[in-house]
Specification:
The protein is α/β, with parallel strands linked by helices and 250 residues long. Helix content is 26%, strand content 22%. The longest helix has 17 residues.
Length: 250
């Protein structure tokens, strides 16, 4: 089985995990344990409690596990990234067709009993939903509210764009999140881990990261903050990290 170099979520550089491709023949799961937690009609699964207890063995863990979610545009390799990082087996896009693969929100536990619940979230800006952004906003807010880590997946060519990099959507969900759960800054920060895909240009990662950090600071400065939190800073609620991955075929 091949190994892939992937970002270490603990910030310790890079680590190798067994490569998976969303197929039953790879990874270390004995059987498929993924669950569609929220379907594409925004209905929650009534099987979640059973999966937490029987499939994922996390029901009795209390707060002793982490939640990682992925956020980004449709067809940018989000499910593939999760499969390679955590050994999950979420469906991935067929290489011969460019269409929506993940619908709604799916979840699975990381392989080798790692205490991490992974959420594969439907991509944004898909032609299937067109201009209806209701689900995009709700799923992004849900991911931000429950996740300790939000992987923000994007192509290198999206860095510096507002809509292409989903900055407008990030602004909306951060604003609502602050209004709903504000006041807890510094107690439990969310890690926004930007993963820049197909990094093939000579532009160094530090420069790309600086652009994204500037964009995030600008977004935060423009938020309508609730009373008493006017002086809150981005760093009070979020940590930012950055990684880039080369094109897999180049």
């Amino acid at each position: 089985m091949s190994s892939q170099q992937v970002p270490d979520m603990g910030g310790r550089g890079w680590r190798a995990v067994p490569g998976t491709n969303g197929s039953p023949e790879t990874g270390t799961h004995d059987s498929l344990t993924r669950l569609q937690v929220v379907d594409d009609e925004q209905r929650f699964s009534d099987e979640l409690s059973d999966y937490m207890q029987r499939r994922w063995s996390l029901a009795d863990a209390g707060f002793d596990y982490n939640v990682v979610a992925v956020f980004g545009s449709q067809s940018t390799g989000k499910s593939t990234l999760l499969n390679r990082l955590f050994g999950t087996r979420f469906d991935v896009m067929h290489e011969g067709r460019r269409q929506q693969t993940t619908r709604g929100i799916w979840a699975d536990r990381g392989t080798d009993a790692m205490p991490v619940l992974i959420m594969d979230v439907e991509g944004t800006d898909g032609r299937e939903r067109g201009e209806n952004q209701d689900f995009e906003r709700k799923s992004a807010l849900f991911s931000l509210a429950v996740g300790e880590v939000l992987l923000v997946n994007m192509w290198e060519t999206m860095v510096g764009l507002y809509n292409g990099a989903n900055m407008g959507l990030l602004k909306t969900v951060m604003e609502v999140n602050l209004q709903l759960f504000g006041g807890g800054g510094g107690e439990s920060k969310t890690l926004l881990y930007f993963v820049i895909r197909d990094h093939v240009s000579p532009t160094p990662l530090d420069s790309l990261a600086a652009t994204l950090r500037t964009d995030m600071e600008r977004i935060w400065a423009g938020l309508n903050k609730p009373e008493g939190l006017e002086g809150a800073q981005l760093g009070d609620y979020f940590d930012l990290k950055f990684a880039s991955l080369p094109h897999k075929q180049l």
